[in-house]
Amino acid sequence: MNRSILISALLATLSLAACDKPTIVTVPATPVAVPGPAGPQGETGSQGSTGYQGATGEQGATGYQGKTGATGDSTTVIVVPAEPAN
Q1: Whole-structure pTM over 0.90, yes or no?
Q2: Distance of CA 58 to CAs 33, 55, 61, 63, Å?
């Protein structure tokens, strides 16, 4: 019985040692492009050409004649201006 325990322990040790442990591969992070400082300002562009003059519009139609107003009853209203403030 001592031999069977010894043989089973030896067999267990060899079988556990024979297990393949997976290799962990660490992938380096991809470098991130960081923008640098802004460059100098470019030159001013050239002036654009002047646009064309549009066509003149047509004369509008004449408006309608208004109705004659009512005649007054010959009463005159005089509005007195307010006194100036001191």
Answers
A1: no
A2: 62, 9, 9, 15
Rounded Cα distance between 5 and 18, Å, is 20
Phi then psi dihedrals of residue 2, to 5 deg: -65, -35
Task: Produce one character per residue of 14-41: b if its CB has 16 or more CB atoms within 10 Å, e if not.
Answer: eeeeeeeeeeeeeeeeeeeeeeeeeeee
Tens digit of each residue's pLDDT (9 = 90 or more) over 21-32:
777 888 888 888
Identity at 52, one-letter amino acid code: Y
Ramachandran sector of residue 5 (left: φ over 0; alpha: ψ -120 to 50; beta: rest): alpha
Residues 36, 38: Cα–Cα separation, whole Å = 7
Residue 12: φ, ψ to 5°: -65, -40
Residues 6+ apart with CB under 8 A from 28: none
